[in-house]
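From the shared-data thread, chain only:
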Amino acid sequence: MVSGAPLRVVFFGTPEFAVPTLDALLRSRHSVVAVVTQPDRPRGRGQKTSDAPVKTRAIEAAVPVLQPATLKDPQVIERLRALNADLGVVAAYGKILNDAVLATPRLGLINVHASLLPRHRGAAPVHRAIAAGDRETGITIMRVVKALDAGPMMATARRPIGNDETSVDVERDLASIGAALLVATVDDLAAGRATETPQNEAEATYAHRLTKADGLIDWTRSAEQIHNLVRGMHPWPHAFTFLHDARFIVHRSTWSADDAGEPGTIVIASGDDLAIAAGQGTLRVHAIQAEGKRLMHTREFLAGHRLSPGDRFSGPP
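Structure, as tokens:
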């Protein structure tokens, strides 16, 4: 049911995850009056400065783009006020919004968050959920408050996590789910029928921003836990380990409950089979990359690297 006047929306977002939500708003009856996104920065292997996905989409749609270096600049706040926006929508913007920004739109700001809050508040909810072995995740539309991802919840949608899905698989799907849920919530706000449910602080967990060190494999953990790390750390920082003073990145894996020996020890290194003992069970590696080299499937990798049963992967040399 559609009711209430269309809203003027200012959109805050930066990466690919946010693009479906922006697209959904552009297709809706509401008006996107401006897009606020992070400043251009070097990207990719060549570290060339380029536009982020949200900026690219906004330019294509002829929506004004703001890229403030800081949201504390009084001139930035004045530009936001001049937009006369009814509502702010946030989807992976990447910066904390201060009180002055939160007070700008008439109806405040709402956020598209890729977890079932209050679990996995923070910067890397999908990666942390998969690495933790969660069987389910989802989208929460919540009101933005000063505390990180702590605002009352307005809508949720649930999604199972498959045993072998990576963060790329799940995040792509959640972006589409979140886009549809967000527009429905904006419609509810326009109609005056939106409801807000406080989060249970006692159940809150935090999905801290990823660092390269998060990908280091601890072979004393179970094979299932290591497999979850491989999935969760894809596409960055990737799960990695060391052998003969060299760093190897594990891209794809499966696991079995069969115990095979000392953690980190190679059990099989032949044909398509690279099996490594974990603290409990055995990890099978299906795609691997020597640092500085290209990704290879196991058969090709083993043809060019001398790995033998009894060799042992470990932490940094």
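The longest strand covers residues 246-256.
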